[in-house]
Every structure is written in C-alpha cells, then in structure tokens.
Amino acid sequence: MRRSVARVVGALIVPAICAAAVTYFGYFTIWGERGLMALASARTQLTAEQRQLDTLQTARERIQRRIALVRAGDPDILQEVRRKQLLGAESGEILVPRKR
C-alpha cells in the first residue's frame, strides 16, 4: 500500500510543478506588469499623448511661421502685433509712434 501511494504521489509531483509554472507565467502574461492588459493601457496612453504631441507641434509650427514673418519685416504681421500691443495698453497712456 505504501508503495502504491508513493508511486501515485511521485507520478503527480512533476505534472503539479508544471501546472503551477504554467499558471504562474500565464497569469503574468495576461495581468502582469508587462502583460496584455498593461499593453492595452499603454497603447491607450500612447494614443492620447500622440494627439497632444500633434497639437503642440501644430502650435509650434504656427508660432515659428509668425516669428519668421516678424523677422522678415512683413508689414501685415507687424501691424497685427502693434494692434495687440495697443489693446493691452492701460487707459490714460499716450502712445508715441517712433520714426524709422
């Protein structure tokens, strides 16, 4: 009887260890720190940050175009900048135009 119990337990040890290893690695493959669920979350975050990057790049390009126009002395952009500066003036201030 002892031999048959020892035989059964001995025959079940290797499959039990293998099943535990498969369960362990399977769990971390799906729900682990770098598993499939984390991959889906990272892709969602990457998409949101990519949209934000596109918005910032568009704004940067617009600002760079305006800077280039100001440096080139484009009269339209200079007049626009002057208008913006005048709207920000305090009441009671006197603006004196400069001669070129």
Question: Between the first and last Cα atoms, what is the distance in angstroms?
Answer: 112 Å
Percent strand equals: under 5%
The helix-strand sequence is HHH
* Main sheet record: none
pLDDT averaged residue by residue: 87
Structural classification = mainly alpha
Gyration radius from CA atoms, angstroms: 35 Å
Which descriptor suits the 3D outline? rod-shaped
Low-confidence stretches: none
Count every helix, treating DSSP H or I runs of 4 or more residues as helices. Answer: 3
- Helix amount: over 70%
How many runs of DSSP E, i.e. beta strands? 0
Q: Topology of this structure?
A:
Layout: H1 2-31, H2 36-72, H3 75-87
Describe the 3D structure.
This protein is mostly helical and about 100 residues long. The chain is about 80% helix and about 0% strand. The protein is built from 3 helices and no strands. The protein is rod-shaped, with a radius of gyration of 35 Å. The mean pLDDT is about 85.
Entry summary:
With 100 residues, the chain is mainly alpha-helical. The chain has helices at 2-31, 36-72, 75-87.
Could you name the key traits of this structure?
single chain, 100 residues, 3 helices, 0% strand, mainly alpha, rod-shaped
